Structures
1.
Amino acid sequence: MLKLKRFKIMAILLAMMVIFTFTLVGCSGQEKPVSESEKGKSEQANSKYPEGPITVIVSYAAGGGTDVGARILQPFAEKELGTSLVIVNKPGGGGWVGWSELAKAKPDGYTIGFINTPNLMAGYLDPKLKRKENLNSFIPIINQVTDYGAIAVRPDSKFKTIQDVIKYAKENPGKLSVTSTGYGSDDHIAALKLAEAIGSKFEIIHLNGAADSRAQVLGGHVDILFANVGEVTTLHKEGQLRVLAVMSEKRSEFLPDVPTLKEIGYDIVSASARGIAAPAGTPQEIIDFLQDKLEKAIKNPEHIKKMAQQGLAVIPIKGDEYMKLLKKDEADVKKYMGW
């Protein structure tokens, strides 16, 4: 009888051990298989996308080149996407107030944003900032604009030509103030390139965006505006600014009367690429959907026409080519900023 009781006790203990072992396996770090029904629910949810408005983060102030381009694209993109876009300006930190928010946004396709090169790279390559985010924090969707650099002054400035600026800068190192849209931005790097080429220095004033930069120059607080063609074309044509030079391979179709730096002997090219990205982790089917719809909107002839009126050159680039462009800009920032 005693042996029978012991046998029963041992049998119960063995059964409990088996149950406990299976429980541990089930609760381990192994990924739980996704059932066909769960997969179906996920695909069904994505197939309904978008079901509401999409927030578009612009990391610069209203009125700047990125903001203008975003608002021109807005109605064309809304038509293709079948929903409304809510453009939110988040200036500051050389663009990283907005980009940090974009990187941390829920990756569900309802928050996307414009990324600007090389400013984006400067914010995470600068070792002093100790930023955790990098290019892998985003999924590039499609580029909208490549906007070449421009150098401009007030209409009443004593500098009538780019040669006047260069002559004064050479004779007065560090006394000529110039604008920048942030440390390591395309404007900043362009100013460094020109200063190096002429063997002088500029006093570089870092500001919150193109609109702020223009205001500082027009207000007489900064001598020279370093900006982009799309940010100065209208003001140049209206006589509110005088563009002295552009930093492209050849003269801009939007400013045919303005010489390139190359024409006067300085092999300097500078540009900012502005495209749209989503937070890392956004489902591929949503990325594919956004890429397809945004490409159609960007290539819309009416969109291209309206952008041209603002001096903005539409250059859609996607996929591997877009990533290649971003990687090249990343390499340039490392080179010129010493990072």
2.
Amino acid sequence: MRRFLDLVAASLIALAPAAPAHAQALEKPKITIGVGGKSLFYYLPLTIALQKGYFKSEGLDVEVQDFPGGARALQALLGGSVDVVSGAFEHTITQQAKGQSIEALVLQGKYAGIVLGMSKAKAASYKSPADLKGMKIGVTAPGSSTNMFVNVLLAKAKLPPDSVAIIGVGATAGAVAIMKRGEIDAISNLDPVISQLESDGAIVPVVDTRTAKGMQDVYGSAYAAGCIYVPVDFSKKYPNTAQAIVNAMVHALRFIQQSTPDQIVAAVPTDYYTDRAQYKAALEKNIETYKHDGSIGIDAAQAVYRDLKSFDPQIQTVPVDVAKSFNMTFQQKAAQNYR
């Protein structure tokens, strides 16, 4: 009988999930996360982790600083005013080429989710990226992922980035207003900004990476888009804190995957949208991007590097070790806890 009880106890221990990160002391329990347009679907896992209390359950006290675009969030990280960024994977590679050691810890979205939209009149005559030459294109912020998306399209037409005029319009109602006033010829942005413009009849998407087909047309392979990235020294100095952050993000991904669109919308702050039905419809267009476990593979990272190299002179001339642009050690542990 005693042996039987010992075996049962051993089995229960083996089946028990690993202890949460805060079971070990967090080296830095209060952190600041920078993000470029927190209401964008690009950052939905971050929003869910905040709203559902997943960071708190990991022992973290998180402050979010919202910026007009991802490039501004990156600048804040480099300047030391934020500890972590919820942003585009591309920045881990561009910064390595500039001598800055930054690594992605967990993926938020496997699709770029970026849409290039134009007025009906301009969209009717759009045939290829070559038609973008000379246009004024609105992006969330110069140097952001929406800007790099435009550069990738231009490179496909063998056009340099300065073939167009890039205008920073942000990622909120201001971007919608600027497009409607006709101050720009096209807009490179994400939902819910794009869905609002579509609903109002202000734009027609001419390039759309919210879907697998759109991603295949633009990138042709696996890709890494939104992620959580940090300076390499952060992961080394605060490993328990890094694990807690990734745990919360993977937990958020699982919530999205296991919930209905209505349940997801209910978890989002109401000031993220003006029309709930429209927001839900936009969510349904983006839902495939969250169907993954948070990992970034070398193939996806290489694809991002390839596209950056197609237009960025610094990437073309400075050696980059793509394997150093991401660190999945924490994601692998988190994926064991949240299935």
